[in-house]
Amino acid sequence: MKNVNTILFDLDGTLLSIDMKDFENYFVNSLLKAFEGFKDTKFVKTILEKPIKNTIKNDGSQTNKNVFLDSFKDILSKDEYIEVSSRFNNFYKNEYHSMEKAVKTEDTIPKSIDILKEKGYELVIATNPLFPFEAVKARVEWANLDIDDFKFVTSIETSSFAKPNINYYKEILDEIKKDPDECFMVGNDVLEDLVIRELGIKTFLINNHILNRHNLDYISDFEGDYNDYLKFVKSLPDIK
After folding, report:
1. 104, 18 in Cβ contact below 8 A?
2. Residue 215 sits in a domain of what CATH number?
3. Is residue 93 located within the same domain as residue 210?
4. How far, rounded to the nearest angstrom, does the alpha carbon of residue 172 sit from its chain's CA centroid?
5. DSSP, res 13
6. Do 109 and 224 fall within a single domain?
7. pLDDT of 125-158, one tens digit each?
């Protein structure tokens, strides 16, 4: 920990106190509402699932945004593609914001960010880059945080890989020009966040909204709830 000067954070279930099952249910239902009248529900689910799967499998040859959009072109006519693009834009301006109702108030997170800033740490949001920047920014605001406090924020526009691909994290390190021993990861997903340990980066697993979809055995350097995490942040050295 002696060389650490940068803290990477997952967003959903970490900085943003939200149960992921609730979030996913809100997201799918809100999206279906936004696509109401566009063919049948089964078809809508199909055209949403394929682009997301393709984005997660992105090999780094292009941005996640390009992979996502190209996936639609394979299954939609030109007119349908234009309508889908329009509906997505409207969704992120309207229905998407209804998901804020699923967020739980968690004062320890804004406090921890203030402490880390005061101590001189650089902050990065390392959220799975499947959403546009504006959608990520909205969720950061739901957590009562200021996105300008973060040196770098991953999004569908900036990344060419997705979690749990270790290249996703390598890409972040290249972007922020940091070595692994300078970084520390805070997350809640056993697979997607703790995989960063393969690079030698230490982790804190916040277990209020822990995700372990595959019941994996895991190791985290630190683990605890939001209060434990705040105590940990307070114990970190001042590096200014």
Report:
1. yes
2. 3.40.50.1000
3. no
4. 13
5. T
6. yes
7. 999 999 999 999 999 999 999 999 999 999 999 9
